[in-house]
Amino acid sequence: GFYFLMSVYLLLVGKVKLKIDLIVRAYILFYLWLIISVSYSSARYDSIMLLIKYIIPLLALWLGYSAIEGKYDLFYFSKAVVRTSAVYALIIGGISAVFMSWLYFSPIGNMFLKYAGLADYFTSIFIIPFVLYWITNRKVYLLIAMWLFLSTVLESVRTGLGGMALAGAFYAFFRYKMKSLVYILAVGAIFVGVILYVPSINEKFFGKKAGNVQASEIIQGDALKLDNIQTSGRQFLWELVMRKFYEPNPIMGAGIGTTTKFIKERAQREHTIALLHSDYVQILCDNGIIGIVLLAFFYLCVICKVFHYTYRFKENIWVKISGTLAVSSLAGVAFSMGFDNVVSHSMTSLINPFIFIGFFLKFIELSKK
User: Fold this and answer.
1) Average pLDDT, integer, range 146-172
2) CB 11 within 8 Å of CB 66
3) pTM, whole model, 2 decimals?
4) Buried b (16+ CB within 10 A) or exposed e, 195-214
């Protein structure tokens, strides 16, 4: 609440400057549809709360755009994020969960959002150590990236692993373009290797079939299809809300906030989980196919603009660096939204790619000047 109000205040007094471009217009179009869906929602309080959560990323984009003035801002910002994230991995991540549980479950550790929430955060900033290595050629930053990856592996967070893998693949493509195939294959090999040879992750993926799934079934078969993966009760809940809210009106949905209200009331009655664990299912139920298409259009605009400008301004490495950071972070977070409550935990991960998009837009402007 404080962050939201402070962002609005900085916007009103002119400290945060508005930047309107194709990416911002695409997101505003998606947001306008969310506002329209309030008119047929039966959950006004939850709809207003969700509208606030969805506007925070746009405010974060403008904050990122306004805060950065040049390459040194990005460099020192990145160093600060990497240092603090390395500490998070130590005191509230997989390292402390496995080797220092007394710290992980201490009052200090309990002040932070851990496990899946932290893994989603690491997904959103996972590329920053690689960017610092790109800038400085210091291998210590690659070790920090491995440190963050290790934290997610030790806590066996599947969504975090998938998000990091996708972010790494996008980073490789936008940095190396046509030469990226080897790096993307390496990312895929690491991802498959972790699934196969880390017992706790293998068990989380395949349940009773753990230990019996072969690499060929993952690469060439359908071992990673949703029907063959243990979803920890997610699929039952998704099917329940899809029947109740999406199927009656698949084009428009039931109105923003409707699914959230239902899940919370059901959790109170049946003493079960109060979160849906999929932002896309929630958007489908609340805002229908129109909502999903508009969000996908926003993703496409980001990818196309970064692709265009990283070619157009080849001589300006900072446009390429900031664009690669933005699109890679967004790719990882977009994956996490499929299986986690990223919008509900918007302050830890959802806003980060938007901040990086703001950086990217500023570097385009500086480059033109």
Assistant:
1) 88
2) no
3) 0.90
4) bbebeebbebbbeeeeeebe
